[in-house]
């Protein structure tokens, strides 16, 4: 990381001596007035919860003090982004009660994929709100919010003005579920790899649609090392030589890295296709894998064990998700509960990261150390001068 900074600084100094005006312009923060987010549970702030049943306690216990639509004890990376941009937390588009979209909206839902799945949520757990559906919702959000605002009254205070759409930051964190869905449908690792080009074609289609609606500044997270997550390790136990030195499933992480390589190529093509846009590609994989593989160094413990869960090697049981209750002697008791200190844990519930882990990851990426180009989130509207 340090070397990244030094290289960037050196590059800026060289540029600065030739192009003083350009350099000073590119140091002014973007002042994004809104965020529009698309994705899966990594950035769902209440979508699936609103549509398919509320996220139960102890979710939300660390920061919100009650469930807050997030599969987490507290804040997600998207929440830290919103806070640092000086914007309120994003409300879910699907949430119809008490929402305020004046500074953006969140179309992400837990279990979302890029490609439409041919199964229902009740069969395999994947959300019906795939990325293309999220982009239809965004299309409606843009047109209908303007109609409603025109009526004035309270709506003007709850919806973004038209000019925000071209100045907003568009964030995306999606793809992991497309890869695990391949395994759920019994594909081999080679077969899952073969689906990546089609997944990324669909991803490009959505970026194109958002661009067509005025989106210009895109902040794209790559996918994490899902081979280190309890739900994957529990369902697909791995044995040597397929286990890495940390205990993660190497073939799954290899698929994630291939997806990321192709995603990065896709982003490079998008830059050429939409030269007026700014695309920032963020290497979340490396940050999460570093945290998991060096947990102790960074003040965390049991990196592969869920904090909130029920039993087994990973404190994870698919039938007893975080917050599950059972009737014992005619009384409902919480049997899948939180660990003692979530602030020392990385994995919250077997699928998702704790607030502490999300914060750690956010702290690594916020200044651009893992981004291409290496610019902070507050500057993600600036083209790298070259
Ligand atoms: C769903 O089925 C269609 C038609 O057979 C197919 O083209 C598509 O690839 C399938 N989607 C997934 C995610 O498997
Ligand atoms: C919506 O949120 C914005 C920003 O936090 C706030 O200024 C505005 O008053 C809110 N609107 C209503 C109707 O509460
Ligand atoms: C995958 O294989 C398992 C075990 O053989 C089977 O129970 C399941 O129905 C299969 N799933 C699909 C989608 O074919
Ligand atoms: C349920 O009640 C019986 C009888 O009072 C008791 O022996 C048993 O330990 C109780 N089970 C649990 C799980 O508390």
TrEMBL record:
GO molecular function: hydrolase activity, acting on ester bonds
Source species, domain of life: Eukaryota
A Pfam family: Lipase_GDSL
Signal sequence segment: 1-25
Gene3D superfamilies membership: SGNH hydrolase
Keyword Plastid: no
Keyword Hydrolase: yes
Coiled coil residues, start to end: none
Keywords recorded for this protein, A-Z: Glycoprotein, Hydrolase, Signal
Family: Belongs to the 'GDSL' lipolytic enzyme family.
PANTHER family in alphabetical order: ALPHA-L-FUCOSIDASE 3, ZINC FINGER FYVE DOMAIN CONTAINING PROTEIN
Protein name stated in the entry: Alpha-L-fucosidase
Lineage summary: Eukaryota, Viridiplantae, Streptophyta, Embryophyta, Tracheophyta
């Amino acid at each position: 990381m340090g070397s990244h900074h030094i290289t960037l600084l050196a590059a800026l100094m060289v540029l600065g001596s030739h192009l003083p005006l350009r350099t000073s312009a590119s140091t002014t923060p973007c002042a994004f007035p809104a965020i529009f987010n698309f994705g899966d549970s990594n950035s769902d702030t209440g979508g699936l919860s609103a549509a398919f049943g509320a996220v139960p306690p102890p979710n939300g216990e660390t920061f919100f003090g009650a469930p807050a639509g997030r599969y987490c004890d507290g804040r997600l990376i998207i929440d830290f982004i919103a806070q640092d941009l000086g914007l309120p937390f994003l409300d879910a588009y699907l949430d119809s009660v008490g929402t305020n979209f004046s500074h953006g909206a969140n179309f992400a839902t837990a279990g979302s994929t890029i490609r439409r799945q041919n199964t229902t949520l009740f069969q395999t757990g994947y959300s019906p709100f795939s990325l293309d559906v999220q982009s239809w919702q965004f299309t409606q959000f843009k047109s209908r919010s303007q109609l409603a605002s025109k009526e004035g009254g309270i709506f003007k205070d709850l919806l973004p003005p038209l000019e925000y759409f071209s100045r907003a930051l568009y964030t995306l964190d999606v793809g992991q579920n497309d890869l695990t869905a391949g395994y759920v449908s019994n594909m081999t690792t080679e077969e899952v790899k073969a689906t990546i080009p089609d997944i990324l074609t669909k991803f490009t289609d959505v970026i194109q649609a958002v661009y067509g609606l005025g989106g210009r500044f895109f902040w794209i997270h790559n996918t994490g090392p899902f081979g280190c997550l309890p739900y994957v390790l529990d369902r697909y136990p791995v044995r040597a030589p397929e286990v890495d030195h940390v205990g993660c499933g190497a073939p799954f992480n290899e698929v994630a890295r291939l997806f990321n390589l192709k995603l990065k190529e896709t982003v490079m093509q998008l830059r050429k296709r939409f030269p007026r846009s700014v695309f920032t590609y963020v290497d979340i994989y490396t940050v999460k894998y570093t945290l998991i593989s060096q947990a102790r160094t960074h003040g965390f413990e049991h990196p592969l064990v869920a904090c909130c869960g029920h039993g087994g090697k990973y404190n994870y049981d698919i039938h007893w998700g975080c917050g599950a209750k059972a009737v014992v002697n005619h009384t409902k008791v919480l049997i899948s509960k939180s660990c003692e200190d979530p602030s020392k844990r990385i994995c919250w519930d077997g699928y998702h990261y704790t607030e502490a882990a999300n914060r750690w990851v956010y702290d690594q990426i916020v200044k651009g150390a893992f981004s291409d180009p290496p610019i902070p989130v507050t500057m993600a509207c600036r083209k790298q001068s070259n």
